[in-house]
Specification:
By secondary structure, this protein is α+β, with helices and mostly antiparallel strands. The chain contains eight helices and eleven strands. The chain has a five-stranded mixed beta sheet. It has a four-stranded antiparallel beta sheet with strand order 2-1-4-3, covered by helices on one side. It is 55% helix and 17% strand. It has three domains: 179 residues, no CATH class; 84 residues, Signal transduction histidine kinase, dimerisation/phosphotransfer (DHp) domain (Helix Hairpins), CATH 1.10.287; 149 residues, Histidine kinase-like ATPase, C-terminal domain (Heat Shock Protein 90), CATH 3.30.565.
């Protein structure tokens, strides 16, 4: 069984804490050993002051150092009388000639012995190399045991903290992991509660955004499949019914019936072609041959091609452009987009209305507005106009023709040019579609 991330995090924190505690115990042991000996040495050095006074009295009494020269037992008696420890002492005269004791006390602390105003000798004591009494050794052992007990307690406390921290830090990750499993199983409504603003909180927030995107895409996919099947079923049903009527002799096979069949085939072909165009745009395979091109002649060409169609529907056409508007784009695709927008106005604008096309350049952007008169579009339907197969059933219904793919294709073309397309209410009372493209240098 593989170790989980909770166990790994616990062991990592515990190992770090254990190493730190062991290092602290070793450092404490070394520091105490060296520091305690240094402390005892310093205490001994301070006691030399009283010892030098006792030796000065002995010098005055004996009239020199003959009473202690070479006699360490006499020095020990003097030291014991002054309540000093009796080891590691060295007595030298004023010329630093050895009187009694260690002849070469390395690193010794010394004090002068003054009789009257004259220095008659020096008393020195070698520093401690090890503890000299059982009490001192016992005290040191107690302190070292206390250091190891403290280190053990620190490790135990670190283990407890590691357990708590592992649970606290990994609980959000577990929630995200469980939600991910549900999301992978197709439950796109899965969401994770965001409880913090740190990296884990941002991870949960990103997961929720991902889930929302997948849920929206799944909804669009199902709607798209339903709309495609519905749009294909309508012309196919008409074709099937007319062919059956001709086969049964209910309808004669003549030019009128062939024209009707051809119209349904043409509508079906246009639908399939629009779907193919959108599919190519989705995968990035829709070809674009971009170059610096002036938008005004393209808009003018699209307007001229629709002038008769608009006039036949009783629509007045207005055009407004005053200067060049260069963009970096594909001529054919831009012309296709402009014609689709004019086709949208031609189909859904009431007879006797107006259609106006305006081009203007605003610094580094070029805006092309397509305005038409009534009927308008409800505010809640404006953001959805560029969805595939979407129609405003009240006024822009299926009866006017089209499969609801033209505006979706326009959005793909605008996006491919780094531009933007949006719908809003028109001053003429109908719909305004504004295409904004980056201006070329």
């Amino acid at each position: 069984m593989k170790a989980g991330i909770t166990l790994k995090l616990f062991l990592a924190i515990l190992a770090a804490a254990s190493v730190a505690a062991a290092a602290m115990a070793l450092a404490t042991r070394w520091s105490f050993q060296s520091g305690f000996l240094g402390y005892l040495t310093q205490v001994d050095s301070q006691r030399l002051d009283s010892l030098s006074t006792a030796l000065a009295d002995e010098y005055r009494r004996a009239g020199g150092w003959d009473s202690v020269r070479g006699d360490y037992s006499r020095l020990r008696d003097i030291v014991a009388a002054s309540a000093q420890v009796t080891q590691r002492f060295t007595l030298v005269d004023a010329n630093r000639t050895l009187v009694v004791g260690n002849p070469e006390p390395s690193g010794a602390a010394e004090r002068p012995i003054v009789v009257g105003d004259r220095v008659v000798g020096y008393i020195a004591r070698a520093p401690l190399r090890r503890l000299s009494t059982a009490a001192e050794e016992s005290f040191q052992q107690e302190q070292l045991r206390a250091a190891w007990v403290t280190a053990g307690f620190a490790v135990a406390l670190a283990a407890l903290i590691a357990v708590v921290m592992a649970r606290v830090f990994l609980l959000p990750l577990k929630r995200v992991a469980q939600a991910t499993h549900r999301l992978a199983g197709g439950n796109y409504a899965t969401r994770v509660e965001v409880r913090s603003g740190d990296e884990l909180g941002r991870l949960a927030d990103d997961f929720n955004k991902l889930a929302e995107t997948l849920e929206r895409n799944e909804t669009l996919r199902r709607r798209f499949m339903a709309d495609v099947s519905h749009e294909l079923r309508t012309p196919l049903a008409v074709l099937s019914a007319e062919l059956e009527a001709i086969e049964d002799g209910v309808r004669p096979l003549n030019k009128n019936s062939l024209t009707s069949l051809r119209g349904e085939v043409a509508a079906l072909s246009k639908l399939v072609n629009d779907l193919n165009q959108l599919a190519l745009a989705d995968v990035g395979a829709l070809t674009y041959r971009k170059e610096n091109v002036d938008v005004v002649p393209l808009v003018e060409q699209a307007v001229e091609s629709y002038r008769e169609r608009l006039a036949a529907r009783g629509l007045e056409l207005e055009a407004d452009w005053r200067e060049e508007a260069p963009v970096y784009g594909d001529t054919d695709r831009l012309l296709q987009m402009f014609r689709n927008l004019l086709e949208n106005s031609a189909r859904y604008t009431d007879a006797g209305g107006r259609v106006r096309v305006a081009v203007r350049r605003d610094q580094d952007r070029v805006a092309i507005d397509f305005d038409d008169s009534a009927p308008g579009v409800p505010p809640d339907a404006l953001p959805r106009l560029f969805e595939r197969f979407f129609r405003v059933e009240a006024s822009r219904s299926r009866a006017n023709g089209g499969a609801g793919l033209g505006l979706a294709l326009c959005r793909s073309i605008a996006d491919a040019h780094g531009g933007d397309i949006r719908a809003e209410h028109s001053p003429l009372g109908g719909l305004r579609v504004r295409v904004t493209l980056p201006a070329a240098a």
